[in-house]
Amino acid sequence: MVGRGRPHGTRSGGRWQGRGGWQQADLPPADDAKAWLTGRLPEGWFTGDVEVSVDREEIIIIGELPALEEEFTDDAERAAAQAGRISRFREDTREERIEIARQAEHRYQRKVAWGARLGDTEETFTTLSAPVMTRLRQPERLVLDTLVDAGVARSRSEALAWAVRLVGEHAQEWLAELNDAMATVGDLRARGPEL
Question: In angstroms, rounded to a whole number, what is the distance separating the alpha carbons of residues 17 and 59?
């Protein structure tokens, strides 16, 4: 995406190509994204803290909407009301969300997506589906094809996403330790050797 505050060029493999372009290594840190967004969001939009997740491509902001006060005859009616309230929030806040996203995209050089949760209903708006280039050998492709043939996924890319989610769910502690170790390496790299 090329826009105001963005370098001119095209995006290729996670890197901006062209005059003055940036590469993934040049991305600004987004460690303070949740704090910045918490300060920037209008009061009354969400109850409690917002969830902010960040990767190299995207920032996703999900907030809890105020509870419905109406009485409902069954769960289906309640779910429909929750979906309707989320839809109303999406429409009523569109212009302001676009402006906040524009500012955050300029600050963090990542696409911004929004979401809302109400009770058991959660919806994300315009999330990024980034292509991932992989070189899989036949044994790995056979695993993906088995998931497709078994009806777990509709395509190899959906099967790969399913596998990544499964690893993420079962390896949270290990992934957290790995992230901590990488942060330590980053600090050491930035500090440099003591001469």
Answer: 22
Q: DSSP secondary structure string, the chain?
A: ---TTS-SSEEETTEEESTT---GGGPPP-TTHHHHHHHHSPTTSSEEEEEEEE-SSEEEEEEEPPPP-S--SSHHHHHHHHHHHHHHHHHHTHHHHHHHHHHHHHHH-SEEEEEEEETTEEEEES-----------HHHHHHHHHHHHTTS-SSHHHHHHHHHHHHHHH-HHHHHHHHHHHHHHHHHHHH----
pLDDT in tens, 29-51: 999 999 999 999 999 999 989 99
pLDDT tens digits along 92-104 = 999 999 999 999 9
DSSP calls for 107-138: HH-SEEEEEEEETTEEEEES-----------H
Q: Is the pTM of this model over 0.70?
A: no
Residues 6 or more apart whose Cβ sits within 8 Å of residue 117: 62, 63, 64, 65, 86, 123
Is residue 17 within 8 Å of residue 10, measured between CB atoms?
yes
